[in-house]
Sequence to fold (328 residues):
Amino acid sequence: MQALVLTSFAAPMTIEHLPVPQPGPGQVLVRIAASGVNPLDTKIAAGTAPHARPRLPAILGIDVAGTVAALGDGVTTFHVGATVYGMAGGIGGIQGSLAEYGVFDAALLAPVPESLSLREAAALPLVFITAWEGLMDRAHVQAGDTVLVHGGAGGVGHMAVQLAVAQGATVFATGSAASRDTIEAMGARFIDYRTSTVDGYVAEHTGGMGFDIVYDTVGGATLDASFKAARLHGGHVVSCLGWGTFDLSALTARAASYSGVFTLLPLLSGQGHARHGAILREANKLIDAGKLRVRLDARRFGLRTAHDAHAAQLDGSARGKLVVDVAD
Fold:
């Protein structure tokens, strides 16, 4: 098979011809159709993501969609020929999806809904799982909650907005003026982070009380701002980018709480794989109900031009999730 291999950090990946791997117990061999591109992929390639525990040489690509080509012993959830998707590799020494074939733990995968293309499926796993773990598993969002999503048009952000709306929450989302239409089309109320202050939008939209749930997908100063936006007496701040040092005094003063989301943990620890597969099956229900869509960048990339997809992720030109078409 052909695979795109990273042999040195901050250096170009190269096409190599490798043996097709064979599935072990509990695993499936997937003929890969598409590989989703995430900001984390570019950080791993640059050598700036030690938390992902990359091991060189590495085949990157965390998100995968394709067709089951062979089953390992004990796999009964899928059949040869089934289309599957998942967040299944590309970190911690596990082969990723920038290759024609890959062996993945069946528990990490879910069937691709009929209404979803394989390109769309490849764009969805990491961002949806991250949104679900924050809103559902940590913050327990429910109907009637007020939810603020920072970065509402981004990868995780646009999943979090749609998920909160689907649960019956009243949703607000920050973004630039250019993202207003996207945010409002998903059912959220737009807040321009460049022209608004935390005190201003908390006063305008919550009467100064704060939001029940604040989901930070940006990190840094935005997470500090999130602590000031949480509801008095029990607000909950969630972040998927809580790396760094932060001042918790504003959170404490509001008697609010904080939860971190580390979506990579099942892959890195080898524990909890089935939870990720189950979360993607919840995504399937929302997709089938017409309550969840993934935004795709219209540009097309292949294995030999995957570096261009990484460049587009880095330069901020992406308008939706970027996908590499592995299968011609």
